[in-house]
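Hi R.,

Here's the input for the copper (II) ion complex you asked about:
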Amino acid sequence: MPDHQETVMTKIDASVQGKWDVAVANLGVIGVHMALLNTGKVLLFSADHHDYETMDKGKAALWDPATDSVTHSDLSRHLLCSGHCMLPDGRVLVVGGQAYGQNLGQFLRALLGRGRGVDHDIHTFDPVTEKWSRHADLPRARWYPTCVTLPDGKAMLVCGNWNRIVAQIVERLTGSDRFGINDTFEIFDPETNTLTAPQPFLKDIGVYLFVHVLPGGFLYVHSWNKTRLFDLNKQEWIPQVFTMNSPGTRIYPAPGTSVLLPISPDNAQPARVLIAGGSTALKPTKQTPATDRVEIFELNAQDPGQSRWRETTPLAHRRFVSETMLLPDGTLLVLGGAEQGTGDHNHGAVLESERFDPVTETWQTLARASIKRLYHSTAALLPDGRVVAAGSTGHEWPPAEQELRLEVFSPPYLANGPRPVINWAPPQVSYGASFNIDTGDAQSIQSVAFVRPSTTTHNNNMDQRYVGLKIVRGNAAQLTVIAPPNGSVAPLGYYMLFIVNTDGVPSIAKFVRVQ
Ligand SMILES: [Cu+2]
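And here is the predicted structure with copper (II) ion in place:
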């Protein structure tokens, strides 16, 4: 009898708060960098956690959540500190890697301009062959860069330090953390695997900027507590600078998370970006409390200068170095992070996750994870609707903590009844075209969405987006929906197609290429 009661309690709990389970006890790789591939496997990569100094060494693993199997591969380069985004053909573009100067010898050589780090490297990972390729180097190093896939499927590379050693010396001497950051961008062409020459971008910016393509053709660029907009159609900056209402930085070294909120099926709502957490100070120290403030940026596409930041309901927990995931039902999950500090000098791990409803703008506190996710931690939505959390080098790194375990979160919707099933969906669709989804559950479907797979590091998920699809017809066996209208709504590439029933339960996703 007590056993039975316990089972019932657990079940009720999971349907309200969700539940966490350790999925892999030792991945062999610290999941500092993570990408969900269109094969359904998860790519995780990092430094060799026994040797952070050697430039020609790294570790990667592929975890298949469907079979729970792991395969390992050694990397010939130290790809820790790169930035990455998804190309239209499903390859992951990895920009940069570790800077030279990991020990005194390297530091002195770097000062003399000898020796080169991995921060000039360009790699791609092919999900089909499961192989890495190295392409022609960047013209100038980018350590802690951001990569964004543009509407046409080309990738834009921004920010990052061009010489980390010089930047750190200047910071020691002057206190300024703004020296040595690239103020140019390059475009990577996936057809030729080549880069354009550098062109002017923004001055006075940080590293690992938050950059999103907004519907209507604007690039959202967020540094510290300020946002700029670039008009992709006119190829010009909007002159206004949009400052957040609450104080403190939202990017590295005390990042919150920036997420483009779900794009509604008819694209009727203005584009909105949410930033949750971060720091209460612009230059955080070990003692600085993280923020619990949450703000929403509202794009005014007709008059972009009138766009604005406004505050919404705060988090239950102050946190930075957390992750935020878009879920198939259009809600957001915030997980992990710490209550105080900066970078790896952090204290007060937050284990409880929280869920945000973008319609009511309210938060619900969910289950506690068993594993701390601090600096260098990552998370990704899986095709089965669960969320995997990886990585973390904890506190005062290296090498105090090296978190090698994967833990998965099953959101409450997975305990809310049977899942709808996609029997068939087209492997590729064109912009604006209608297409059919074979499902016996068509009558009970309330929403259909494309969710772009995560590529994430340093709490900067450079790819994820949720694009609602309009349902035009449904009968006993089939749903007809309309593909996204253009590349500013859904940049070229692979998406997870989810159908969600009236109980809020999502299907297992099918990968569909938008082209
Ligand atoms: Cu790092």
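One thing worth noting: Residues 2-17 form the longest helix (16 residues).

Cheers,
M.
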